[in-house]
Structure formats: C-alpha cells, structure tokens
Design goal:
heterodimer; A: mainly beta; 4-stranded antiparallel β-sheet; 11 strands; 0% helix; globular; B: mainly beta; 7-stranded mixed β-sheet
Chain lengths: 107, 121
C-alpha cells in the first residue's frame, strides 16, 4: 500500500500569511493526488484534484503542485475561514490512502 | 441540487452486522464512481471502499477487506455498505462520497453528512 505523509502535522499562522503544507508518497503516484479541507463536525471538501487542478468554487488563493512523490498545497493569503484540517489523498492505486492530516490553527 | 444522504448507522455489538445506505439525488448516479470513507472519533480520514459506475469493479481498504461489501442499485440511486463481523475499531463516522468521474482518479467532490456507527457491547 502507498503511505502518504503530511508535514507539518499542525501549524499556527495568522490571517494574511502564506502557508505551505506538503505531502509525500511512499512511491510514485504521478499526479493522482487530491487535497481536502475539513472543518470540525463537517464533511471534507475537495479543494484540488490531479495535484494542481482547482475544484470549481474553491478560492484561487488555494493552489496545488507536485508530481511523483512530493506534493504541496499552498494557501497564498490565509483568511479566517481557512483554519481547518487539510488532508491529501492518493488516487494512483488501490487501496486509496489519505495523509494523516495537517491542522491549521490561528496564531 | 446534488445531495447524498447516509442512513443506517447505530450502535451494534461486536461480531454483528449493519448495512449503511446512501441515497443520492441531483446528478446521474449511474455515471459516477462512489466511495465510502470513515473517520474514527478524533482521528483522520480512512478510505474504505469504491465501486465503479456500473458496479462491476469494487476495491477495499485493507482493514475492511473480506468483512465489508460495497454495492449500488442504479435504479434506486442508492449506494450501500454491508458491514459484517464488526469490531470496536470500526466505530466511526461513515461518509459516502461521489467521485468527480467514472474512472475514480480525480477526487471526491460531493460528500454526505455522514452516519455514525458505534460498535460496543
């Protein structure tokens, strides 16, 4: 199975900051990676698919990059509504797997 | 309006069975792959299973393989998860999710609100 490792596990940042969350796959997954945002008590929300494609309706301050084993989710200018937990997920091979999550907190 | 509504969760004893349902509306169900994803209390997301748009292909996570069965009825716009031999570690919120496409490569773009399963004696 492919293991997905996110860094950091948690991060504190301020409104307006630029934040980068990374995700590393234990083997190459081409560009078959998605990013999700989850707020407490809510279902996850798709942000990015196929590593760098912005899901419809998602603000342009979110962007994704990478291929192979190393990926990143960048939030260019944090807004109050962005404080949440973020997960990466590989869709290269079954079983699909998620990263352990990165909790983004207000500094 | 695209909507997924899970049902069937509850409290069940270890070793028993439970069947979850996910009723969908607002899109052509038969043309999309569908997933189940779960989240134990206070933990991260765990992918459980996926089924292809026509139901011919099914894949499972390692922890549920051989115990859980995913299925769908395209005539009823409903996704199912049959869970047998339940264990305490199956306790979680269970979400159904629609894939962006039939080939299940592009992420899960619509999620239900979840249904809670608690396995306890």
């Amino acid at each position: 199975d492919i293991q997905m490792t996110q860094s950091p596990s948690s991060v504190s940042a301020s409104v307006g900051d630029r934040v980068i969350i990374t995700c590393r796959a234990s083997q190459g997954i081409s560009s078959w990676l998605a990013w999700y945002q989850q707020k407490p008590g809510k279902a996850p929300k798709l942000l990015i698919y196929a590593a760098s494609n912005l899901q419809s309706g998602v603000p342009s301050r979110f962007s994704g990059s990478g291929s192979g084993t190393d990926f990143a989710l960048t939030i260019s200018s944090l807004q109050p509504e962005d404080f949440a937990t973020y997960y990466c997920q590989q869709a290269n091979s079954f079983p699909y797997t998620f990263g352990q999550g990165t909790k983004l907190e207000i500094k | 309006q695209v909507q997924l509504v899970e049902s069937g969760g509850g409290v069940v004893q270890p070793g028993r069975s439970l069947r979850l349902s996910c009723a969908v509306s607002g899109f052509t169900f038969s043309t999309y792959g569908m997933h189940w994803v779960r989240q134990a209390p206070g933990k991260g997301l765990e992918w459980v299973a996926v089924i292809s748009s026509d139901g011919s292909n099914k894949y499972y996570g390692d922890t549920v393989k051989g115990r859980f069965t995913i299925s769908r009825d395209n005539s009823k716009n409903t996704l199912y998860l049959q869970m047998n031999s339940l264990r305490a570690e199956d306790t979680a919120m269970y979400y159904c999710a629609k894939d962006r496409r039939w080939d299940v490569l592009y992420g899960m773009d619509v999620w239900g609100q979840g249904t809670t399963v608690t396995v306890s004696s």
